[in-house]
Structure formats: structure tokens, C-alpha cells
Amino acid sequence: LKGKAKKLTRDIATPQQAAVLGAGIMGGGIAYQSASKGVPVVMKDINQKSLNLGINEAAKLLNKQLERGKIDGIKLAGVIATIQPTLDYSGFERVDVVVEAVVENPKVKAAVLAETESKVRDDTILASNTSTIPISYLAKSLQRPENFCGMHFFNPVHRMPLVEVIRGEKTSEATLAKVVAWASKMGKTPIVVNDCPGFFVNRVLFPYFAAFSLMLRDGADFNQIDKVMEKKFGWPMGPAWLLDVVGIDTAHHAQSVMADGFPERMKKDYRDAIDVMFDANRYGQKNQLGFYRWQ
Ligand code: NAD
């Protein structure tokens, strides 16, 4: 997959100017990552408060780098200056690539992508950071589906190396190459994958979560499983901790997408730990209560 990604980018210029739709957890992280690696971004949201949060998040990450002596004040100010916040589409006529990171709602995403397509040049590439919506479905709202693909980052963007670049039915090779080039410039490892439920990572992750839930049904203790997987097996964290970080509401939704996509493997006739936690509004780190209590 990595070799394929490299071959694709051989003759493709790295984007000079990018845009991000949505200044939330993911959009803010992507804007920071792109700007700090030298590709300026326009960051659009629908409200000023979210835009401010996105900029503040970037500033916080840059300040950490300053404290560690990795950058100086001039570099910090320079990077911040290359993130241009906007509530409209100003600056979008200049962008080579746009990644959409608004709420995970198919109708909202389709409408936002169609509107964006009408504001950019004909050769601008559009990508979606969706975790669960088929790329070929979102492409239906576009006039130029060949210029569109998935670009799935992981949270937190500045720490997670992988980016899934998802090929829709009509995505062109040039589009994939441009997005691969941008992800590489951001210091990430892009992999090109086909459009299917769960793309690559969630096809591995959700059977793992299912196995974890089955062990809990068998009477195992989640804390012990975490300890073994983290401390003894050497993974960065165990499954319960990971679910708390991902967000149990997010996992609950993704799990249902996986069950619909691969019923023979993923459908179950019982309520598992993710269902129970979700019904109890225990979403993990985001609302301070999941498998663990977060401060
Ligand atoms: P978020 O709720 O933190 O941010 C969404 C942002 O989009 C908000 O600031 C909101 O104001 C803005 N927005 C809504 N409608 C908009 C519009 N029409 N135009 C511009 N901005 C608009 O959400 P998030 O966690 O950053 O997730 C964004 C996307 O990334 C989703 O598709 C999600 O599935 C995907 N994703 C999330 C994660 C994660 O762990 N959070 C990981 C990978 C992918």
C-alpha cells in the first residue's frame, strides 16, 4: 500500500494551498498539521466560536513545541499566520485541495461538498474525512466526482501517523495522487484503500472490540484486559481505554455501520459492552465517564 502511494505521487505537485471545512477536533487538527508543515490553509466553519476554538487549538499545539524548544516565536507566528479563518468561502478560489471535516451526517456532508464545489476551481480536489459514510455516496452530490476521494485522519491528528486515502468508484488516479502528496507533506503515512465499510482500520479494530466485549460477557474484567494488553503485550493502550478515547458514542455508531456492512461477521444477537455503555450515556473521555472516570 505504501509503495502504491509513493508511485502515485511521482509526477504530482504537492498542493500549495489547502482548505479545511469545519474547525472542530479534526478540522482544527488538520489545519494545524498542514500549516506547520508548510502548506497554508483556509479554515471555514459556520460559527465564530468554533473558528476561535480551532485557532486556539493550533496555537496551543504550537506553544507546546515552543516550550520544548522545537520552534521559535517567529516560526510560531508564521505558522499561525498561514491559517486563515473564514465564515464564508473567501480564499477558496486559490485552493488546490479541500478536506471536509464537518459533522458526521450524510445529508449535511453532501450539501456542504456540493456548495464547496461551486466555489472552487474546476481542478481543485475535494476530500472527506468521514469515518463511516461511503465515498461513492457522497460523490453523487458532485459534478466532478473524479476530483473527490476520502481522506481519513485519526484523532489526535498531530500524533497519529496514518491517513486512509479512500478511492471512490469515480475517483481519478490524479486525485488520489494529490491527496497522497498532501498527506505525505504533512508528515503522515497515507495508504490508498478501496471504499468499503470501515475502510481499513475499522475493519481490524471493530472485530477486536467485539472480541473484547465477548470476553467481558464471559466474565473478564476490563481493567485486567487493559493492563495485560498495555503493560504486558506492549500496545499503547488496552481496548477499554481506547474506546474511552475514541468516544463510545462514535464507536457505537461505527459498530452499527460495520454490522450492516459485514453482517455475516459483525451482526450480533445480544447487547454488548459498547451498547450498554452507550445507553448509559457513558461516552468516555468526552463526557468524563466511560469505562473509566476522567477528570
Ligand atoms: P466536531 O463536532 O468537533 O467538529 C465539526 C465542526 O464542523 C464544528 O466546528 C461545526 O461547527 C462545523 N460545521 C458544521 N457544519 C458545517 C458547515 N456546513 N460548514 C463548515 N463547518 C461546519 O467533529 P469532529 O470530531 O472534528 O469530526 C468531524 C468529522 O471527522 C466527522 O465526519 C467525523 O466522523 C470525522 N472523524 C472524527 C474523528 C474523531 O475522533 N473525532 C476521527 C476521524 C474522523
Automatic annotation (TrEMBL):
Assembly and binders: Heterotetramer of two alpha chains (FadB) and two beta chains (FadA).
Binding site for NAD(+): M26, D45, V102, V103, E104, K109, S131, N155
Entry annotation: catalytic residues: H152 (for 3-hydroxyacyl-coa dehydrogenase activity)
Similarity remark: In the central section; belongs to the 3-hydroxyacyl-CoA dehydrogenase family.
Full protein segment contained here: 299 to 593 of 728
UniProt-annotated stretches for the region 3-hydroxyacyl-CoA dehydrogenase: 13-295
Gene from which this protein is expressed: fadB
3-hydroxyacyl-CoA dehydrogenase NAD binding domain boundaries: 18-196
Coiled coil regions, renumbered to chain: none
Identification of the protein by name: Fatty acid oxidation complex subunit alpha
Organism annotation: Winslowiella iniecta
Function: Involved in the aerobic and anaerobic degradation of long-chain fatty acids via beta-oxidation cycle. Catalyzes the formation of 3-oxoacyl-CoA from enoyl-CoA via L-3-hydroxyacyl-CoA. It can also use D-3-hydroxyacyl-CoA and cis-3-enoyl-CoA as substrate.
Residues in 3-hydroxyacyl-CoA dehydrogenase C-terminal domain copies: 198-294
Binding annotation for substrate: N202
Domain of life, per lineage: Bacteria
